[in-house]
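Researcher: Please generate the 3D structure of the following complex. Treat every line as part of one assembly.
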Amino acid sequence: MSEFRVAGFRRRFPALRSCHRNEAPYAPAIYLDNAATTHRPDAVIEATRDFYTYTNANVHRGLYRLADEASERFEAARTTIAQFFGMPSDSELIFTSGTTDSLNIVANGFAQTVLDHRSEIWISPFEHHANLVTWQQVARKSRATLRKLPTDPWGLVDPTALEKELSSSISPLKIVCLKHVCNVLGTIQDIQNLCRVISKNGAVSVIDGAQAPAHVELDLSSLGADFYATGAHKMYGPMGIGALIARRDRLEQISPFRYGGNMISSVTFESTEFAEVPARFEAGTPNAAGAVAWAAAIDFLREYRRADLHAHEHRLAEEATTGLESLLGVKVLGCGLKAPIVSFVVAGVHPHDIAGWLDQKGVAVRAGAHCCHPMMAALGQVGTTRASFAPYNTLSEVSALVQGVSEALRKFRL
Amino acid sequence: MTSFDLYQDLILDYARSTRGRGQVEHPTGRGQGRVASCGDQALVTVRVEGGIVTEAKVDCNGCAVSLASAAMLIETVEGKSVDQARHAVGSAIAVFRGEREVASEAVIEPLAGIHRLPSRLKCASLSWHAMLAALDDSESPGN
Ligand SMILES: Cc1ncc(COP(=O)(O)O)c(C=O)c1O
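Model: Done. Output below.
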């Protein structure tokens, strides 16, 4: 592996090559919304095309060679993805449509069957709506109690504080739901120690790993999570595919709640026997091309040293943080070691106006509440402006961001 | 998508004006609006006397577009009959959506191109929807 060069990495992303910056002023050329979704390299787009061109058949169904090839590619993709995540041997990878879908499977499949009025769901206001709203609904339906996790002002949970809370609860069944990497602040939870505490106290951990795979080297076999939900599109893979990686004994407790093809082992007119996991949870035609393209994203990443990619992203985030904080009235939120996600607020200027101004300058950032309304309330903000980086971003793009924000301050500070 | 200068001076001037900000004392009607995606809110209060909107205000924590649009709203409705006000608000929402041409010399003229920025359409129309609710509230039997 040779030295990491941004230009070479960047060239592999067609969305960055074909920017029509001069023809269409609104087309964002400088893409700093990678926490919402990244761009995809040629290899991923090509893999999708290749699957549909040369191995297009429904998986696990046809009795012809083409169908076998499709199934083989689909299952090979599962293996590649499982290896990337360092999946423990006592667990399974279920394909889903994304992180939200994975969390909903845990909530509606596992939790809904085991929770009752004595159970507790531990979660914090810092969670993404995909996690928080889902568990609110489960709590309502199962009459379990929603309990607030102890957090610091940035949403981080201290394992010792958690231990104290969990060990003093007498509830017979506790589920603890946490995001690994915060989509707003980039803060990273100490998941390994938290999972240890959770499991030591007989509770079940559900980890929202939407943001993690792009920025953290994952080894789920040492992380110790009962359920880990994640997706492809924030790590250069396609949209519409994700995974739920879960301990097999936990999965065996889940009754399937979506019914259809592929998830059965035998059906008579009156009754059905369900297939083994993971097929039991993959009803209907799966997104096989998506799985293959996700595996291609992983193969693409393997061409680089992850440490190089992360070092470059962090350099960008640090430059952005320093540049933004040098502007009067700008405050970057969060603390500690972070993923390259930089959320900031400006006294007297609404985040939409900063993002709107940056958009006019060709810089795409996210602004608002980032699907985390209770978190904004906890931070005492209406919203934030968020720049999130990928290894194809450059230092000159960071300068454009800082320059744009500095102009916005002059324009909008009323 | 053709370009539209969201931050032209006229829009910013409206955003800076404090006219019609806050809440009417002893309102006859109230209406609330909220943009789900960003959480921005607007509370519209009106006082209708003898069928005329004598005073209206918007309490809003939004961005420059929603503040400018709120100031334009107040300028549009004050002094009109409830029916005229409702009609004017309905037409403005249609202009924001790009469903009709803006009338010449209309107050909302600077925001007429907002439909070219679908993600900002909600900022512009937030207080106008709340105004429709406030006018309805003012005429509801409880009042
Ligand atoms: C922390 C977090 N959780 C969950 C999600 C939902 O992911 P998806 O929309 O891919 O299902 C996101 C995406 O923004 C996220 O950032």
